[in-house]
Amino acid sequence: MRCQDLRQCSQKLVRRRPLKPREGSEGRMSRCLKTLDLVAFGVGITLGAGVYILPGEVTRNKAGPAIVISFLVAALSSVLSGLCYAEFGARAPGSGSAYLYSYVTVGELCAFITGWNLLLSYAITIASVARAWSSTFDSLIGNHMSQALRGTFPPHVPSFLAKYPDFLALCVVLVMMGILVLGARESALVNKWFTGINILVLSFIILSGFIKGDLHNWQLTEQDYTLAASGSNDSSRLGGLGPPGSGGFAPFGFDGIFQGAATCFFGFVGFDAIATTGGEAQDPQRSIPFSIVVSLFICFLAYFGVSAALTLMVPYYQIHPESPLPQAFLHVGWDPARYVVVVGTFCALSSSLLGTMFSMSRVTYAMADDRLLFQGLSQIHPRTRTPIMAILASGTLAGLMALLFKYTDLVDLVSIGTLLVYSLVAFSILVLRYQPDLNEKAEEEVEMEPEVEEHPLDSVPEASTSRILKSLWFPASTIPIQKSGQIVYGCASLLVFLLIILSLILAQWPRRVFSGDPVLTAVAVLLLLLITGVTVIIWRQPQDPSPLMFRVPALPVLPLVSIFVNVYLMMLMTSRTWTQFGIWNAIGFVIYFGYGIRHSLEENNEQQPPASTSQI
C-alpha cells in the first residue's frame, strides 16, 4: 500500500497542464496591450537604475573601457534565454511566463518551484527599487528624511532589518499598486511615458559623451595614472582613484572583460516580464516573441552607448563608482546636466517598479488560477478586468518588505532564482520541441503511424545492443512519437546532470583545469565527450513540425549553451546565498504540499503518466 501511495504522489508531482488554455480561462482579462506596450514593459524593467550605476562599478574595478565588450558578451548570453522565452511565447501565450512553460512541459512541482522563485525575485526587486527611489529623493533634499527616521528602530535589531522604516518607499509601492488596479491599458500608458523619458535622457547622455569625450581615455598609460594621482582638484575623484591595471582599452585583460560580463549579465534581467502579459496582449503569439527580441536589442544599445560615453568622458580609474554619470558631467564642465540624469533616474526607477509589480501580480494570478496558490488570489475585477487580489497581495508584501528590510545581502538571491528560472525555460523548450501531441494535427498523424514503424522502439527490451544504438541514431519515424519523446526527455535530463558537474568543476577549480591538472582535465574532457554524444542523439530525433511565429534556432545546441551559462553563474554564488535559497524553497514546499497538491485543478483530471512520457 505504501508503494502504491508513493507512486500516486510521484505522479501528482509530474502532472502537467494541457498546452491549450483551459475552458473559461480565456477572456477573463482584457486583451488591450499592443506590441509597443510590451516593448515598453521589457525596456522599462530592464533599463532600471542599473543603467545609471552599473557601468561605473564595472568600468572602474573590472573591465575599464572594455566594458562595452562585457555588455556585448552579457547581451549574447541573455539572448540565449530570450530566444527560448520567445518560442514559448509563441507556443503558450498565457499569463505566468516561465511558470506556465514549466507546467506544460516538466510538471507541477517544477512549475511551482519556478513560480515561487519568480515571486521571490520580483518581491526583492520591487522592494529594492522602491528603496532606491526613496534614497534618490532623500539625497536631493539633503538626507533630512533618513536623519529624522534613523532613531525609529531600537539600537539592537536583527541584521536583516533596515536602519529605519522607509515610509516613502512604501508610499511609492502603494501608488504603483493603485495604477495597476486601474487597468492594464492605464498601466501601460503610464509605463510608456516613464520609459520614453528614460530613453530620451539616455540618448542625451550618449550624445553628450561623443561630443565631450576624448578617445585618449581609451588609450591611457601608466604616466596618465601617475599624473591623475598627483592632482588634487579633480572633483570626479571623490571616491579616490581606482586600480590602474595595465592601461589601454582593456587594462584588466580578458579576465576583467569576462568578470565584468558576469556582472553585466544581471543588467539584462527583466525581459522575461514580457512573457507575463500573454493573457492581456492583443496578439500574443506574434507580439511576445517580437517584443522580447526588440527589447533586448534596445537595452543592449543603451548599455553599450552609456558605457562608451562614460569611458570617453572620464578616465576609467577616475569614474565615481556610486554616482558615475553626474560626476562625469561635472568632470567635463557640464554641471547642469546632472539634473537631467536625476530626471532619467526617477523615470527609470518608476518604470522598473511598475513593470515588475505588473509581472509579479500576473504570476501570482496564474498560480492561484491553477490552485497551486490560494484560490482567492485569482479574483478578477469585473470592471477593470485586472487580477485585483493578486495585485493587492503582491503589492502589500513588496511594500512591507520595502518598509522594513534591507537588501544588500539579498541581491545574489535574486540572481540565483532568475538563473534557475532561465535554465528551466531552456530545458522546457528543448524537451517540448521533440514531443508528440502538441496539437490536434500531430495527434492525428501519430495515430495514423503504421505499427511497423514503432516496432523497433517497442522491442528495445529484447533488442541487442546494436539494435538499441541503431534506434537512437536512426529513429523509426519522421515526426515525434512516444518513444522518441522518451529518448529526448531522458537524454536532456542526463545532459543537465553532466552540465551541472562540468559547471561545478569550472567554477571551483578553473586554474587547475586549464593549467593541466591530469585528473580534473581528464574529467572535464570526458564530460565534454559525453555531452557531445548525448547532444547528437537528441539532434537525431524528429522535431515537432508545427508552424510557429518564432522558433529557437540551432536546437538542441542553443538551449544547452543557455543552461550551461546559467548553471555556471549559479555555481559562482556563495554558500550563504544557497542557504537563503534553500530556506525560501522550504517555505514554498510547505505551501505546495499543504495546499497546492490537493487543490490543483489537475487533481480531478485523468491521472497522467510520469514526465518521461509524451503526453505534453
Automatic annotation (TrEMBL):
Entry keyword set: Amino-acid transport, Cell membrane, Glycoprotein, Membrane, Transmembrane, Transmembrane helix, Transport
Main location: membrane
Domain of life assignment: Eukaryota
Catalytic activity entry: L-lysine(in) = L-lysine(out); L-arginine(in) = L-arginine(out); L-ornithine(in) = L-ornithine(out)
Keyword Transmembrane helix on entry: yes
Membrane topology value: Multi-pass membrane protein
Residues annotated as domain Cationic amino acid transporter C-terminal: 550-600
Pfam families: AA_permease_2, AA_permease_C
Protein location: Cell membrane
Membrane-spanning intervals of the chain: 35-54, 66-86, 98-124, 167-184, 193-211, 257-278, 290-317, 337-358, 388-407, 413-432, 487-507, 519-540, 552-571, 577-595
NCBIfam families membership: 2A0303
Annotated family: Belongs to the amino acid-polyamine-organocation (APC) superfamily. Cationic amino acid transporter (CAT) (TC 2.A.3.3) family.
Name of the protein: Cationic amino acid transporter C-terminal domain-containing protein
Organism of provenance: Rangifer tarandus platyrhynchus (Svalbard reindeer)
